[in-house]
Amino acid sequence: MAIAAEDVFYSYNAGTPAEHAALEGVSFSVERGERVSIVGHTGSGKSTLAQHLNLLLFPRSGSVSIDGVSSKPGSPDARELRRKVGLVFQYPETQFFAETARDEIRFAPSNWGMRGDDLDACVDEAADAAGIEPSLLDSNPFSMSGGQRRRVAIASVIAMKPDYLVLDEPTAGLDAAGVRGLERILSDIRARGLAVVQVTHDLESALAHSDRILVLERGRAVASGTPEEIAVFLADNPVQGLLMPPTARFAMGLRSRGIDVSVTSGVPELVSALEKAERPDE
Ligand SMILES: Nc1ncnc2c1ncn2[C@@H]1O[C@H](COP(=O)(O)OP(=O)(O)OP(=O)(O)O)[C@@H](O)[C@H]1O
Ligand SMILES: [Mg+2]
Fold first, then answer.
1. Which residue has the CA at smallest separation from atom 29 of ligand 1?
2. 23, 49, 53, 7: which is closest to 195 by C-alpha?
3. Exposure check for the chain: N or C terminus, fewer CB within 10 A?
């Protein structure tokens, strides 16, 4: 069970003088239960690809299939397939319209016909998955912190019970504590069996939290692999706008001196690898 995008080409304003190629032959896949990041500089095509994954956009050529079924614009499958893939837009809280978090979260499932106890249970479950305290459910989202609002937006998508959750820059604009909190929530969501696809320009976060990473550059996929493989690739092939975190650079330096350490190590692991190398007998 997977979303598979194969050789996707997409242009905005196709057939007009303003035509702009945003994706040029991109392939990408994510299986249920995986956590995958899509990274790249601004304008590299990340949001365009994210919107293909839940069929908001359709390729000009190439294909996108969800659990083995591909869909064309307007096809009867599209609605049900789209429900399987929840898309959390960048700055989703700008689209809030309800007066309470509860109403915001219940909107989509009630549109799908859910009512009564089922609807209440669905809202509670989605709020719990997104790390929202029950006492917050009756608050106005506009009175909440940035991190809490982002969780409400995630809960409102999870309430559709998707199998795949695609988030476009979910940590944008949050402070350090908000970012850490959200990363924890995404790990928990993935532990519930959902696939989590995270669009980000934050390479450090992608290296730390992904099973696999896709690197986009000007609409093309320039690398795809494990965090380890991507760090090694980027050390030799810098991509504009993707900054190697200092810990990864340091780890690469240690490795070039024969010290065996993972490029995704944090500071404590780097320190202990260095100590071990200096005093191998201890
Ligand atoms: N609605 C649109 N009309 C025309 N061109 C667009 C439109 N949306 C995006 N583009 C262009 O397509 C390319 C890819 O844009 P996209 O938004 O997918 O990039 P991105 O990697 O998400 O960038 P960012 O990090 O800034 O969000 C860019 O050159 C962008 O200017
Ligand atoms: Mg974008």
1. 43
2. 53
3. C
User: For 191-217, what is each residue's pLDDT tens digit?
Assistant: 999 999 999 988 989 999 999 999 999
20-31: strand order across its sheet: 20-31, 2-12, 61-66, 69-70
Does the global pTM surpass 0.85? Answer: yes
Q: Which CATH class is domain 2-244?
A: alpha beta
Q: Is 51 in the pocket of ligand 1 (CB under 6 A)?
A: no
Least confident of 40-44, 215-219, 250-254: 250-254
The SS3 assignment for 27 reads strand
Instruction: Please tell me the distance from the alpha carbon of residue 42 to that of residue 57, in angstroms, as a whole number.
Output: 19
Residue 263 pLDDT exceeds 90: no
Percent of the chain with pLDDT over 90: 81
The CA distances from residue 205 to 94, 113, 200, 232, 247, in Å, are 24, 38, 8, 16, 12
Our answer on whether the CB atom of 40 is closer than 6 Å to any ligand 1 atom is: yes
Domain ranges for the chain? 2-244, 245-282
Nearest Cα residue to atom 18 of ligand 1: 45
Q: What is the pLDDT of residues 157-168, one digit of tens each?
A: 999 999 999 999
Q: Which residues pair with 10 in a beta bridge?
A: 23
